[in-house]
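The following block was generated as part of the benchmark described in Methods. Ligand: heme C.
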Amino acid sequence: MVERACVFGLLLIASAVSGCTPSRDPAAEDAPAPAAVTATRLAAAETEPGQWMSHGRTYGEQRFSPLDRIDAQSVGRLGLAWYADLDSRRGQEATPIVVDGVLYVSTAWSRVKAYDAATGKPLWAYDPEVPGEWAVNACCDVVNRGVAVWNGKVFVGSFDGRLIALDAATGRELWDVNTIDRSKPYTITGAPRVVKGKVLIGNGGAEFGVRGYLSAYDAETGQLAWRFYTVPGNPADGFESPALKMAASTWSGEWWKLGGGGTVWDSMAYDPELDLLYVGVGNGSPWNHFLRSQGKGDNLFLASIVALDPDDGSYVWHYQTSPGETWDHTATQHIIVADLDFEGGTRRVVMQAPKNGFFYVLDAKTGQLVSAEKFTETSWATHVDTKTGRPAETPGARFYSTRRPFVSLQNPNGAHTWHPMSFSPRTGLVYLPVHMANYTFAHDDAFRPSPLTTNLGIQRSNAPADPAARAAAMQKTLATVGGRLIAWDPVRQREVWRVPREGAANGGVLSTAGGLVFQGTGTGRVEALEATTGKELWAAETQTGVIAAPMSYSVGGTQYVAIVVGTGGSWAMSGARANAKGNSLPNISRLLVYALDGKAALPPPPPLPERRLTPPPAVAAAAVVARGEAEYRNYCGRCHGPDGAVNFGILPDLRYSAALASKEAWAAVVLGGAMKANGMASFAEVLDADEAEAVRAYVIAQAHAGLQAPVSSSR
Ligand code: HEC
């Protein structure tokens, strides 16, 4: 038996490697070549229920699995079939792809792995070797949301802006193209999609000052086929297309000097029937509309869904969710194409629940607004006028006009961000993970763009100076942080059921023909709920927080549910991982795969280390500490936690750092880049020796304050 498998393995990969590994399921005598995904197969994905060949399973990205072996009756028997430890402790956001019995998944730092989908046997692993210091460009961690497969190749966008093609059989690199201007803080975290032989990839960076675009590369050669810019550049340089000339009439001032934003960092969907590609466009750069465009104009195509011709990237239509956006209202959230049954008949629509809290249903062919309703509490607008398609904003929402802080019921993670939703054609419902968290937007009069940090035009903190008052304000904000999973009827635009979640950072969603909805939670569980009622039917402990979405596939008649676990990403980076329970869990990156009667078991989780603050004596006068605090806010807090004292994140809480012990040890890391390979860049470009030392003084002061009033921290 072993020999046969060996010979078989050889045949399969004969031209690629010598030796008889990796072998595949010996029963699969006529297994096809790896990742043999074609236009025909992808367009007819419905006819192959056991595969998950693209990011959202089908081109319409419904994230609905037609498999039904696991259903309400059998789900109680669901158990772990196999698991694989992944290789980092940063955020894990990917949805695996499964084609013909092989599972492909990306992990933090844009690494890629392939496994036998039935047994979990590792087949190959690939590391694009992203330079560690590129992590300083991460608004939201060094995550990666997935790979694409096509014609024997696996494609991944690397965090440092490259698009890479791998041989699906061996993981060998076939081509590697640079997709960005490397002098700018672009990053890639999104999954590529492949449409008509072209690999589509966007990028991120709008928090730092870049101009967004989507590129299409020939899947075979890596040649650039077309590029669609989402915001206009400097008119003096001429416009790339008539659409951008039109867009430029909605901008004012010299926006191009600040980038403009509009990055395409996550969502795309394709409709083979209409031959339209739908792209979700991000927030403005800087966020503040006044600083970006003199507070004038809609600023197309920010916060829009744009439909493009996939052959040449030319503009077809757009719908803008938040005109003149100024609250980090991206429309990069998951886009779903579906046929919905309205009273007047079936209509093909595009659906999105972007950060701004409204659920949009658009006509897929024309982009005309069908309906828009709030799917959660929001304070920036009361409603959307269905005639004009425009929101009715609340007085005070434009904080730069009033020069008064505006309390939004969404923090910059939005009412919903990248965590994918799911549409079940069986129930007609969309299952949507919702976040709640208050946030105060206040105009930054002193805005001055700087390298190595975010450039938002929003005050970094308007917390009171008095420590007790500040702690109280922090507690008040944290009390607003929460989440829910809702089932949304997109035809009637109303909630059908909801399950409250502890904390905001929970996983994406899968629905299945077995009448189930699967979701992981920030508090370390994966659950199966009844799709019609939300009733919990099954749950398993994951030992760690979950933010990624589950998916389902089958091999040899067995249905599996796979999910990547391990927390990180935007919530953790912005200092609100989940809640007390989520924060007390270790952060473990793993791929968990469940099946009926699965008998595998996870090893016991490592105990959380006992940690005690042992700061060196205070080193500086109050004025120096205050200066250090300002620089900490400017350059450190977005990764190491707000106020240097409340760290609910995934990166080191600096109050515990051994580097606090001496000026030299501190400077070696902060200015010398001693830990740059691990993601801690040198800040020598923006801080001099005195400023770095002032930050040390501030963190020491915070550690002493922490001795007085201990705050929980897991790192
Ligand atoms: C983009 C994210 C990011 C930013 C911004 C950032 N750091 Fe870091 N920092 C890291 C990472 C990642 C590590 C951990 C490296 C590791 O675990 O090996 C780290 C580690 C450190 C350490 C060592 C911690 C230890 O465990 O002893 C110090 C000191 C430090 N950072 C100081 C700073 C200071 C000061 C600033 C602001 C000037 C800053 N960092 C800004 C990501 C960041």
